[in-house]
Amino acid sequence: MIGITVDMPYELLSGDYSGLNYTTLRGIRNDFRKMLGPQQSRYVLHLCRPVLRHWMEMEALIDPGFLPGYFSDPSRFLRGVWIPAGLPETDPQREIKANIDAIKAGLKSPQQVILERGDDPETVLDELADWKSMCADRDLDFSEAVQNASTALANNPAALDQEPGSDGDRRLRSIK
After folding, report:
1. Most CB atoms within 10 A, among 7, 112, 146, 150?
2. Mean pLDDT per 10-residue segment, the chain (176 residues)
3. Apex CA 93: angle with CA 91 and CA 97, to 5°?
4. Whole-angstrom Cα distance, residue 154 to residue 158?
5. Between vectors from CA 128 to CA 125 and to CA 132, what angle results, nearest 5°?
6. Whose CA is closest to 48, among 37, 40, 58?
C-alpha cells in the first residue's frame, strides 16, 4: 500500500527482487524513471531555477565585476543543463554494451549516455584526461589491454556454466 501511495514500484521500495528476471526488472526501472521525469522537471522549474536566479542576482549586486553585463542580459548567465541523478545499471555488462552499440549505430551520443547516468560530460572528460596523465607519469599503458578485452563469454552466459571437458565445452570450441 505504501508503494501505491507514493507511486513507487513495490520491488524498488522494498528491495525484494525475488522471482524477477532481468527484463522485468529493467522494465520496472525504466517505467519508474519515466514517472520521475515530470517531477524532476517541476523541481527544476519551481525550485532550482528560481534559487539560481536569486543567487546570481545577489552575486551581481555584491560584486558587479564578477558577472559583467548580468543585468543587461541575465539569460546568458542562467543557461544550463540540470542533470538529474542517474540510476545505477541493473546489469552493467548488458547495459554498457547496449550503449556502446547505440553510439556506434549513431542512435545515441556519448554525452547522452553520460547524462543518463547522472554525470557531467565535461567532468568525465577531465577525469579521463587526469587518468591518462597519471598513467603517463608512471609509464603505464592500459589502452591495449582495454582494446583486446574479450566480451565473448560475457555475451554468452550459458558458456560460463559449462564444465571444462563437458559436451558443451566441445560445442563451444567448435563455434569459435
Report:
1. 112
2. 81 84 85 87 93 94 90 90 83 90 95 92 94 92 71 55 48 43
3. 120
4. 9
5. 140
6. 40
Letter for the amino acid at 170? R
Q: d(Cα 35, Cα 4) in Å, to the nearest integer?
A: 13
Helix spans in the chain (H): 2-5, 10-14, 22-43, 49-62, 75-78, 92-104, 110-116, 121-137, 143-147, 157-160, 167-175
Task: Determine the Cα–Cα distance for residues 172 and 158; give it in Å rounded to an integer.
Answer: 10
* Identity of residue 15: G
